[in-house]
Specification:
about 240 residues; alpha/beta; Nucleotidyltransferase, domain 5; 7 helices; 6 strands
């Protein structure tokens, strides 16, 4: 029987690189986090059921999606408990998370402050697009390296990222290069766009990313401590002093 996997990808932390001001006081988040929720042989459906269960326990009646940034601390804790229970009980549900500390990034990634350059509207727009491209590059490389490190042997792998706008092609190219060319994996590889039934799975990945981000950005490890035994976490912080 062929072994397949389906993954949901989402992130936490903003796309900006304005690091000369405090976060939420004119500055960008210092950390960028991705979460990859992988279900082996159709187990990816379990992630959506965790979020369904969260909705039921919280008595949420609206069909509108729930995000980590908008739910209460109590609901966050319940989600982490539900996620930990699912991951502990089912070896075919796996979660990988990765963290990038922007302040330790190489200069070419973090040096440009577009707004401080006082350019015209057209020039500013072009540079802002390039600035967003830096985050898409970091995102894609984090995803590719994390998958290369942790994916089990598979015949086919499908992934569904949350919408990252123009970063789609960067993600596809780097993941394909890392897994199929550099690692020479013999498996089918496909990205799919989000559809309605996938939203709860993406919500699961969003909340995992949020729990990890809280630990790094806000030094609040209370949520991460619940799920930490059941996820694989990699810190991509550049600690080189060269």
């Amino acid at each position: 029987m062929a072994k397949t996997a389906f993954a949901y990808l989402d992130e936490s932390g903003d796309l900006g690189w304005k690091l000369d001001q405090p976060y939420q006081s004119g500055g960008s988040s210092r950390y960028f986090v991705i979460a990859i929720a992988v279900g082996i042989n159709n187990s990816h459906r379990r992630f959506g059921k965790v979020v369904d269960n969260l909705h039921t326990q919280q008595k949420w009646t609206s069909a509108k999606e729930k995000k980590w940034a908008t739910i209460s601390p109590g609901a966050r804790q319940v989600f982490c408990q539900l996620a930990a229970k699912e991951l502990a009980a089912n070896a075919d549900t796996q979660v990988y998370a990765a963290v990038y500390h922007k302040e330790t990034a190489p200069d070419f990634l973090r040096a440009v402050d577009v707004q401080a350059m006082n350019l015209g509207a057209k020039e500013t727009q072009i540079l802002e697009q390039q600035s967003r491209g830096r985050t898409h590059l970091v995102y894609a490389m984090m995803v590719a390296e994390t998958l290369a490190a942790h994916l089990p042997p598979l015949d086919a792998f499908t992934y569904c990222p949350d919408e990252l706008n123009e970063g789609q092609r960067t993600l596809d190219s780097i993941v394909t290069y890392r897994l199929l060319i550099q690692d020479k994996l013999k498996m089918g590889l496909k990205r799919v766009d989000r559809t309605g039934p996938m939203q709860r799975g993406l919500d699961f990945a969003d909340m995992i990313a949020g729990a990890v981000w809280e630990a790094y950005e806000r030094n609040d490890r209370s949520f991460l401590e619940i799920i930490a035994p059941y996820i694989l976490l990699k810190d991509f912080t550049n600690t080189s002093t060269d």
